[in-house]
Automatic annotation (TrEMBL):
Enzyme kind, highest EC tier: transferase
Enzyme Commission (EC) number: 2.7.13.3
All residue ranges annotated as the HAMP domain in the record: 167-220
Chief location of this protein within or outside the cell: membrane
Protein name: histidine kinase
Length: 465
């Protein structure tokens, strides 16, 4: 509205100035054409008749100024009334007389007159022929008043019509401001209402909603991560408390003299060693998970397309054979064998990844099968399924209830919370390490049932070549 008012005011001023200049130029043209003849006629009448019987045309005023210094003589048109212009004495050498260019003077009322000066044909006197500009000035003032009045009416009409339109146009921006205020108060579920248009405001609303969705998702992930971390720390503290309590208990018994005989001392030392070993395994697995989490954060923060210097070509068939051979060394009583997938012959199954991490995946799965079954063979099947390499560890033990198969990959998860892990048991982190590592390699892992009873763990990774 301020811009409209300014534009209307500038237009009115410019129009008045142009109109005034145009009308004054017309008066100047008339004066320059008529000044010399009218002045000469009046001067001849005066010198011949000895009086001022000559009367100039309407609105003209003439003044003669004899060069000999006599009193100036004024001649006014019969219809002229009011004040006459105040013109100073003009000598023939005056620039205004010599140039003949019109100039402006005022009368006693402050009205403007336009004047043209010159010298009569006999060089006896100078003359000044003038015309009033009062009518022109009044016309210009009336034009200004009319223009400003029309502009004011137009401004009022524009305000009445434009204000609702402006409110409607800026309503989406107001809604964006309200949404931002709600989000600042902590309500991350707020969204900007879409105006239903395809203009810049609609695009802004769409972009803001996408950004808000990402922000809300980020906060949800952060909260979930914090809750997961708190639960993980609590579980780790609980798992560490048991072996530490056992070690402290045996040490106190020995210090108090409750353990005296050689046989009792040997048994106590063995239990201390078992619990220390268990605690060492737990700490190592905790460090492994911490390293995997740090690697994941580094991967998310890295620029797209950044290659991992540790990523190489890894053959899962070789890793499966090594894991079976290593397990036979500490569990010679168990039957383990490596087979091709679904009757396929064994062959190379290359994938891209970090060899130590993938080796631990296979080792953990085989060790988990041995630890949770008492007898029966364990088959490690490896092969290719279209564009994926598949690794399956199949056992024929008690199996895993279907409702618990997704949860076995959680950290410190137990199907029976009241059961404590024995000295020969795992840390409860082995399958969590498997799931985290496989996910970081772009693969998937799941727990299935074995035909005839037992559990099957299946890992799928993108194949190379």
């Amino acid at each position: 509205m301020v811009l409209i008012a300014g534009a209307l005011t500038a237009t009115a001023i410019a129009l008045a100035v142009l109109m005034q200049q145009f009308l004054v130029r017309q008066v100047d043209d008339q004066l320059q054409r008529a000044a010399a003849p009218v002045a000469q006629s009046a001067f001849d009448s005066f010198t011949t008749a000895g009086s001022t019987g000559f009367r100039p045309p309407n609105n003209y005023w003439i003044q003669f100024m004899p060069v000999n210094g006599h009193q100036p003589i004024s001649v006014t048109a019969p219809q002229s009334t009011g004040s006459t212009p105040r013109v100073d004495y003009l000598s023939p050498e005056d620039e205004r007389v010599r140039s003949g260019r019109p100039f402006t003077v005022t009368d006693g009322n402050g009205d403007r007159w336009r004047v043209v000066a010159g010298v009569d044909a006999n060089h006896v006197a100078t003359y000044a022929v003038a015309r009033p500009l009062r009518e022109i000035d009044e016309a210009v003032r009336n034009l200004q008043i009319f223009t400003l009045s029309v502009g004011l009416l137009a401004l009022v009409a524009s305000a009445l019509v434009g204000w609702p339109l402006m409110n409607r146009a800026f309503r989406p921006l107001t809604q964006i401001e309200d949404t931002a205020a709600g989000i600042a108060e902590g309500n991350l579920s707020r969204r900007v209402p879409h105006p239903g248009t395809r203009d810049e405001v609609g695009s802004l609303a769409t972009s803001l909603n996408l950004m808000l969705a990402h922000v809300e998702r980020s906060f949800q992930l952060r909260d979930a991560s914090e809750q997961k971390m708190r639960r993980f720390v609590a579980d780790a503290s609980h798992e560490l408390r048991t072996p530490m309590a056992a070690i402290r208990g045996y040490a106190e018994l020995y210090r108090s003299g409750a353990i005296t005989g050689r046989e009792d001392t040997t048994a106590a030392m063995r239990r201390i060693e078992d619990e220390a070993t268990r605690m060492g395994v737990l700490v190592e697995d905790l460090m492994t998970l911490a390293r995997l989490d740090a690697d994941e954060q580094h991967r998310l923060a890295a620029s797209p397309g950044t290659d991992d210097a540790e990523t190489t070509e890894v053959d899962l068939t070789v890793l499966a054979g090594d894991a079976v051979a290593d397990t036979r060394a500490w569990a010679p009583e168990r039957t383990l064998r490596v087979q091709g997938l679904a009757g396929q012959p064994l062959g190379a199954t290359p994938v891209a990844g970090r060899e130590p991490a993938l080796r631990q995946v296979v080792t953990n799965l085989v060790a988990n099968a041995v630890r949770h079954t008492t007898d029966g063979p364990i088959e490690v099947q490896v092969g290719r399924d279209r564009d994926e390499v598949v690794l399956r560890v199949v056992d024929h033990g008690p199996g895993i209830p279907e409702e618990e198969r997704e949860r076995v990959f959680e950290r410190f998860y137990r199907s029976d919370p009241s059961r404590q892990r024995g000295a020969g048991g795992g840390s409860g982190l082995g399958l969590a390490i498997v799931a985290t590592t496989v996910e970081q390699h772009g693969g998937s892992v799941r727990a299935l049932g074995t035909s005839g009873g037992g559990a099957t763990f299946e890992v799928r990774l993108p194949a190379l070549g």
